[in-house]
Amino acid sequence: MSGNGRRAWLFTGQGSQRKGMGAHYADLLPGHWELADRLLGFSVREACAADSAGRLRDTRHLQPVMFVLNAVAGLVRLEREPAPDFLAGHSLGELNALFTAGCFDFETGVRLVRRRGELMARASGGSMVAVVGLAPEQIEALTRADPGDAVEVSNYNSLDQTVLSCPRAAVAGLVDRVAEAGGRAVPLNVSASFHSRDMAAAEEEFREYLTGVPLDDPRIPVLSNVTARPHRPGTVAAQLSRQIRRPVRWRESMLHLAAEGVREITEIGPGRVLTGFWESALAEPIQVKPQSPPEPAPPRVPVPPPPAASASTAPAASPAAGPALALDLAPQDLGSAEFREDHGVRWAYASGSMFRAIASTALVARMARAGLLGFYGAGGVTLPELADAIRTIRADAGPDARFGVNLLHDPEDPAHEAATVDLCLRHDIRSVEAAAYLRVTEPLVHFRFSGAHRDPDGTPVAVRHIVAKVSRPEVAEAFARPAPAALVAGLVADGRLTREEAEVAALLPVAGDICAEADSAGHTDGAAAMTLMPAMTRLRDDVMRQHRYPRRIRIGASGGLGTPEALAAAFVLGADFVVTGSVNQCTVEAGTSDTVKDMLAGLDVQDTAYAPAGDMFEYGSRVQVVRKGTLFAARGNKLYQLYRQLDGLEALDAGTRRSLEETCFRRPLEEVWNLVRQRYVTTGRTDLAAAVERDAKRRMSAVFRWYFGYSTRAAMAGDPSERANFQVHCGPAMGAFNRSVAGSALADWRRRHVDGVAEELMTGAAGVLERASWRPAGSPRSAR
User: Fold this and answer.
1) How far apart, in Å, do the first and last CA atoms of the chain sit?
2) Each residue's pLDDT tens digit, 70-108
């Protein structure tokens, strides 16, 4: 169903399984299926497709099979559309919801569910009965009247369906009592009575097991089966153990979603049972949220002690440590010394790329002259233009200047990515910023390990560096592990890597620098740095323990970094380096129009909004843009809504088509398509033009994507007649910076230089941390 309200994804649980389920996911994300097979010792895809070994009838195996299928389905959906506003899962499905919300990685999830299934399968002797046609108060009366106090509610599914648990010997009598009360009871084919007192031992053992598993708080609200409310910070482990024993409060969960404005749900997993429960909840009044006894605060589950402090992590000073010390912190004391060494810069700070050369040659050259790292915005730039830009930067900053180039993933044009890497190698570029990647690609591996070798002592060395900007832990993990062997073998076979380079590729991560991209202007899931950074640092520590790389993977922070306090917080969270973005767009050197810079200098923290990303339009990826003074966000979101709803341009009604042509495109849609087709032809992609023209949906997407390029060009040109269509990528850090420098010389953007912004932020961050008596663990006093 669809609507204009908020959205939720609902994951199915045990009981929805069937042979042949998930066939359309079997060829997607093969690495996840293969990892699950290794962990479980059998083929999950075979169990889904044919189940020749009968694993779908055994709780021990069924639970991990269902988890893997639903996890893959959820990841695929995340690649294709925006994340929902809420997540929920029925019983086992709650673990899929928590996985999708970033509480743990895929491998951890498989291990958790395998253990859960093993523990729950040990119980026997119980049964479950689905009851329909009785009101909740009649159900409660049945349980109170049970002579042996053996009947319990296991699932409050909907107003007219409840699942009861009881001993097998009591099923017949329970069925009769339900019939006498005017309802109907259907015994379920289960091996035990789940979510009942029979699960008490499983609950205790699972609680003990969870004490050794690090779990992060959800990045998307996840409703708990126990409370029918979103998990509170720090309670995931406790609720997961309680969930095994306590009833599933699904009806209340659905009423809560309805009361919170959810009007569109997607059921992920086999069957449509949860959709039926949702529709039942929508038929109930939602003016008043469901009444239920308040839940006591769950006990906190002990978690393992944090890893020993490293060069990028440090505890706050103990209150008992005595008076604050004069630590004399300086910008060069912050972050990782190895980052500074590897990139040849004086601070663990970089200015991120802004596409179409908004991160201009002048900006990058000025950063290089200041001894700082800047990335040129190569996205949307032709290869000849990129070659000229590299030469210009070196002419301006010196032949040995250290700077980087952006690699922006474009699934529609992988050949351009490969050609960009070839050009970077010809010009001996040593650092790239990789953005918008959902997986590791062959060109990335080619760049990273070109020139890789062993030192005389045998230590593997990569002379080129990838700074991977990611917002999802599973993508970060792909960059943190060695390159896929198949990609490396293909590069060796093509002569693009030597055997020595390939041997080093097996011993080092794809990216030595992984930047956690939180609430930024780039491709982002709107993640909060306070949750994303700990997730990334823990992931890094886990991978380092497994692979024991000779140099530690560095975790950086980006997004929301517009004040000294924000940078200080990032370093306290464990950042080895920081990458700024939006604040650099409002500097003298940025390659956008003065009109846009005037707009940016007038922003406050609330003046941005989310809109579709033009380069990943079909996938539903989003970027953050200026909202104040332009209608681009509303118009871009409207185009994506139409794309999802319609099968082609021909399905547009006359009024909508006329409105689009007059406001967004400023020309007939057929004329836009002719422009798009001509671009395909002139760039040597005639076959693609023909394929797109034959597919009405792809043709609509290509036309709509044209608007995103058009709106960017209008903003960069500063055309006042097109102000309503200006697309200006920007996060709330811009407004925060404006407030921070109000009343100072930097209040006027014409006095903002990109290295001066870096000085303001890094020196200010050092001052904030000095006043807090904080210092990087093990670092000496600054040598001034």
Assistant:
1) 64
2) 999 999 999 889 999 999 999 999 999 999 999 999 999
Q: What is the average pLDDT value for the chain, to the nearest integer?
A: 88
pLDDT > 80? residue 2: no
Residue 387: Cβ-neighbour burial (10 angstroms; 0-12, 13-18, 19+): middle
Reference 56, options 16, 110, 25; nearest CA is: 16
**How does strand 184-187 pair with strand 152-158?**
unpaired
Let me know if 90 is a catalytic residue: no
DSSP 241-261: HHHHHS-B-HHHHHHHHHHTT
Active-site residue identified among 16, 61, 90, 91: 91
| Maximum distance among all Cα pairs of the chain, rounded to whole angstroms | 91
Residue 195 appears among annotated catalytic residues: yes
| CB-count burial class (<10 Å; 0-12, 13-18, 19+) for 451 | middle
* Confidence band of 303 (pLDDT split at 50, 70, 90): very low
> What are the φ and ψ backbone dihedral angles of 12, each rounded to 5 degrees?
-75, 165
pLDDT given at position 772 = 81
Report phi then psi at 226, rounded to 5.
-75, -40
Q: Which of 61, 195, 343, 446 is catalytic?
A: 195
Q: Please report the pLDDT score of residue 302 as a whole number.
A: 33
For residues 138 and 164, give the distance between their C-alpha atoms in angstroms, rounded to a whole number.
Answer: 13
CA-only gyration radius of the chain, Å: 28
Q: What is the DSSP string of 59-128?
A: HHHHHHHHHHHHHHHHHHHHHHSPPPSEEEESTTHHHHHHHHTTSS-HHHHHHHHHHHHHHHHT--SEEE
* Overall residue count recorded for the chain in this entry: 784
Tens of pLDDT, residues 248-294 = 999 999 999 998 889 999 999 998 899 999 999 988 864 333 333 33
